[in-house]
Design brief:
about 80% helix; mainly alpha; single chain
Length: about 260
């Protein structure tokens, strides 16, 4: 009795292309994100809202209300995703609430603004960027960004980059939410404290006058400059360490 012929292997199935509707939907969501960002920039650039937020008039309207801290934090959460400049609003918080409570409210506001910006960009833009980077150089760049250590993400908060740019970049590159939020909390804390103190110190210097009134403002400004240079110092230190490790490895191979 002859053996049955061996079964033929099943033909390899080709990967099905992504449905056109999903690509189109991702592109439409990304376009909506772009419209939100551009509209927000125009709103702060060419309407009275921008000045009302950055010079404290909007907060002045609710200053005596017990809801003033909630309104202040909500300003960050709602307006940071559309490009609100953070530094002047943080200074306003130091002026209105003082150094202690101002630092707390500024931190909560900036953290909320970073979270909502990240969530908006992740919801509307991540799928489109992932579609563009599939199998290409952009995908390798995304993998490199996602492998960044926690402390590298913390250091980015010390670099004087636009606040929305860092939040959107983290979301679009695929950095996980928990890692982003944890690094944001650690990185924002020292910068927020210095900016808040600087805002309160400037008002004190203007009201009291003299060298004694200017001293706190200069100290805060010096701390801010030092904080800006910390990333460069850390980067230079890492480079020296990598160079020393390479030299040590080459010396071992020669032996």
């Amino acid at each position: 009795m002859s053996n049955p012929p061996p079964a033929r292997p099943a033909p390899a199935t080709k990967p099905q292309p992504e449905p056109l509707i999903s690509r189109r939907g991702a592109a439409l969501r990304f376009a909506l994100l772009a419209v939100i960002v551009v509209a927000g920039f125009a709103l702060f650039r060419w309407t009275p809202l921008g000045e009302a937020v950055t010079d404290g008039r909007l907060l002045e309207a609710v200053r005596d209300s017990p809801w003033a801290p909630v309104v202040f934090i909500a300003i960050f959460a709602v307006l940071c995703p559309v490009g609100m400049p953070v530094s002047p609003v943080v200074a306003v918080g130091g002026v209105f609430f003082g150094v202690g409570l101002g630092t707390l409210y500024n931190f909560l506001g900036c953290f909320s603004g970073a979270a909502t910006s990240y969530g908006l960009a992740r919801l509307l833009g991540r799928d489109f960027v992932a579609t563009l980077g599939r199998g290409g150089r952009l995908q390798r760049v995304e993998r490199t960004l996602r492998r960044q250590s926690f402390w590298n993400l913390v250091v980015i908060r010390f670099v004087p980059l636009p606040f929305p740019l860092v939040n959107y970049g983290a979301a679009l590159s695929g950095i996980r939410a928990f890692k982003f939020l944890a690094a944001t909390a650690v990185g924002l804390a020292p910068a927020i404290a210095i900016y808040t103190y600087l805002g309160a110190a400037v008002v004190t210097a203007a009201s009291e006058g003299g060298r004694e009134g200017l001293l706190p403002a200069f100290l805060a400004l010096g701390g801010l400059i030092l904080l800006t240079f910390i990333p460069r110092l850390l980067t230079a230190r890492r480079r020296r360490k990598r160079l020393a490790d390479l030299r040590a490895e080459r010396a071992k191979r020669r032996r």
